[in-house]
Amino acid sequence: MAVKKQSRSTTTTGPRRAPRSQSARTVHAAPSDTDKLPFDTEEVLRRVRHEVRSFADAAMFELAAKGHGSLFEQLIACILSIRTLDEVSLPASLRLLGRAHTPEALARLTPAEIDALIRPVTFHEGKAHQVHAIAVRTRDEFNGQLPADPDVLQSFKGVGPKCAHLALGIACGHEVISVDIHVHRVTNRWGYVKASTPERTLAALEAVLPRPYWVELNRLLVPFGKHVCTGTRPKCSTCPVLPYCRQEGVTSHR
């Protein structure tokens, strides 16, 4: 799909909101055999931003808003969120970090004590051991301060690009894209990228998505994917993005 870019001056204001001065706009030309509008990144994300304003924020952004915004806390919370609904992982993260929010304090807990605090999350026993190991290594190897380095973060067991990028984006303001199942599904359904796995979607998005939206994309598309562009029977008839969306792979919708 052809891509045209128009560059304008931009200022990145952080992961929780769009830039005040909008950045380069990515426009994908509409296929000639459809009546869809050319895919305008800036306009589409503006519409999504408006659509999700009444929905709960994605769990890790909400956690940061509640005072747990350090890189260590965000990384721990992301591990708890893997294959777990936000409605489950957020309260579990708040319980755990309310008890011990620093590497030193968390390392003093036993895996069994951690497990008791996070029990509702998926794979809680294994995650309890992962969380404890991260706390101990952060305390002993990094003097209690996690480096803001994606390679270091991904060297911990259970931490992949999604968690590393999301934690760095929220806690440190790094311009990185975090691709979960919602980001992968929605951007491919739009026809904005075409990729078979989240990892390939990440690479494709890095090539076309303007940098000021890299962190915000996850914050927007998690609630959008949960409530509007759902995995089965998406709400296409009322979706504000429908004029731009190619509806790739959609066989039934509401």
Automatic annotation (TrEMBL):
Pfam families: HhH-GPD. Gene3D superfamilies: Helix-hairpin-Helix base-excision DNA repair enzymes (C-terminal) (1.10.1670.10), Hypothetical protein, domain 2 (1.10.340.30). InterPro entries: DNA_glycosylase, Endouclease-III_FeS-bd_BS, HhH-GPD_domain, HhH_base_excis_C. This is Base excision DNA repair protein. Residues 1-36 are annotated as: Disordered. Its cofactor is [4Fe-4S] cluster. PROSITE patterns: ENDONUCLEASE_III_1. GO terms for molecular function: DNA-(apurinic or apyrimidinic site) endonuclease activity; iron-sulfur cluster binding; lyase activity; metal ion binding; oxidized pyrimidine nucleobase lesion DNA N-glycosylase activity. Belongs to the Nth/MutY family. Keywords: DNA damage, DNA repair, Glycosidase, Hydrolase, Iron, Iron-sulfur, Lyase, Metal-binding. Residues 8-25 have a biased composition (Polar residues). SUPFAM superfamilies: DNA-glycosylase. GO terms for biological process: base-excision repair, AP site formation; nucleotide-excision repair. It comes from Corallococcus coralloides (strain ATCC 25202 / DSM 2259 / NBRC 100086 / M2). Residues 80-227 form the HhH-GPD domain.
